[in-house]
Amino acid sequence: MTRPISFYQQVNRSFDRAAAYFDHDPSLLKQIRGCNSVYHVNFPIRRDDGSIEVIQAWRVEHSHHKLPTKGGIRFSMAVNRDEVMALAALMTYKCALMDLPFGGAKGGVRISRQSYSEAELERITRRYTYELVKKNFIGPGLDVVAPDFGTGPREMAWIADAYSSLVPDKLNALACVTGKPVGIGGVRGRVEATGRGVVFGIREACSVAEDLRPLGLDPGLEGKRVVVQGLGNVGYHAAKFLQEAGAVLVGLAEYEGAIHDPKGLDLEKVVAHRRETGSILGFSGAADLPSSQDALTLECDILVPAALENQITHENAPGIRAKIVAEAANGPTTADAEEILRDRGILILPDVYLNAGGVTVSYFEWLKDLSHVRFGRMDKRFEEGVHRGFLQAIEKLTDRRFTPAEAAALTHGPDEESLVNSGLEETMVSAYHELRETRNRLGAVVDLRTAAFVDAIDKIARSYLEMGIWP
User: What does 131-198 look like in DSSP terms, one character per residue?
Assistant: First the structure.
């Protein structure tokens, strides 16, 4: 029996497949491929009952070709060295692909957050921050952390506060972390950014008739049958925006099981049912499936795995009935499963591209914190005045009078959230067509994941070459 390869090995397998298209110095490719810094720490925390527990945690900085490095922190019992290294590597390639000025990093704390009180979680988060500060693994120009699985704005606020109390640079201290509440330097639109970016990416892929024709699909999201695995922050917002775009949610899955209704599920009603009962199971009109994994093989047009890695394996890949697998999670498809899906003609939208919305909007938040200016503050009123001038000119020329509601809608200047969403859309759209062009240039045997890695490696290599280290 073949031993399954690790998550980090899977990422490196994608790297090696893409690196074969270059004739770069092998030492340069080795530098790009490897993790630069791996920090493993054990630290004690006092539980509410007075006992002491030792916590394991990691922070990995995969690449220093650009600084700061950037990546989230997850709280999970599945956290280990290999997983954090793999996620850090993906962040490097993701940032390069999206033209973000960061190297890749990732952090993880091995805990089950449900087993700790809020006070205990705060002590763990602050102590972890202290350990990062002690070893220079956090800072606005060093390594910028962010939320990930099991963490959110509350934990990021604790990190920002702890970091600010420990370092002399108070002016830019808040830029050490993104995903913060808006009131302490966060940016509007960050919470839903990854899910929104997933939908921008799916929408763009579904706009190319040439690529959809072999799948037997018509262009557009309207009427597409969608299954979403995972209703955390990413899965919920992806499902929400897909539904708003006209897609039909025929299946939803969480850790307690999955539900299916070929006529369509109302997302908000499912969420309300889960809030009341503690489970998505038993939702009126839907069939219960005993395992979250069962949702992966439901018949649909688009499957969105938005939970954890290694969900689609060589065992269930032959039963996948989706025509498009949209990887909203990091590493949801194993390398062996990907080969099976490719051979079956299923289009895979790779994680290294599709879930880059979070880090893209984190970049906007980082810029906001360093500039100390809210997006839209300088130009919103000016643009509204210009638009009003156009409307007044039209009214004089045509005798057409706009109602107050029409005038307000037509003269509305961009606020922070609309600018953030516009920037995210532009980034996702441009990156998709860039990687698609790379795929087409390299030939029909190349998939979108390989094309994404080719683009990322090329950009990172050029950064190193411009440093003058390699000839």
Answer: HHHHTT--BTTTEEEEE-TT--HHHHHHHHHHHHHH-S--TTGGGGB-S--GGGT--TT-TTHHHHHH
**Which strands form 248-254's sheet, in the order they lie side by side?**
287-289, 257-260, 248-254, 225-229, 302-305, 324-326, 347-349
Name 354's Cβ contacts closer than 8 Å, sequence gap at least 6.
197, 198, 201, 202, 326, 327, 328
Render pLDDT for 453-468 as a digit per residue (tens, 0 to 9). 999 999 999 999 988 8
Radius of gyration of the chain measured on its C-alpha atoms: 23
% of the chain with per-residue pLDDT over 90: 79
Q: In Å, what is the CA distance from 283 to each residue of 109, 271, 287, 434?
A: 34, 10, 8, 42
Q: Tokens standing for 88? A: 């850090």
Q: Provide the 10 A C-beta neighbour count for residue 404.
A: 7
Which amino acids are annotated catalytic? 106
Say which CATH class 37-184 falls into: alpha beta
What are the domain boundaries of the chain? 37-184, 193-354
Axis crossing angle, helix 357-371 with helix 416-442, rounded to the nearest 10: 130
pLDDT greater than 50 at residue 1: no
Q: Which CATH architecture has domain 193-354?
A: 3-Layer(aba) Sandwich (3.40)
What mean pLDDT is predicted for residues 133-150?
96
Angle value at C-alpha 377, between 385 and 193, nearest 5 degrees: 115
- Residue 183: C-alpha distances to residues 39, 87, 155, 178, 187 (Å): 31, 29, 14, 12, 9
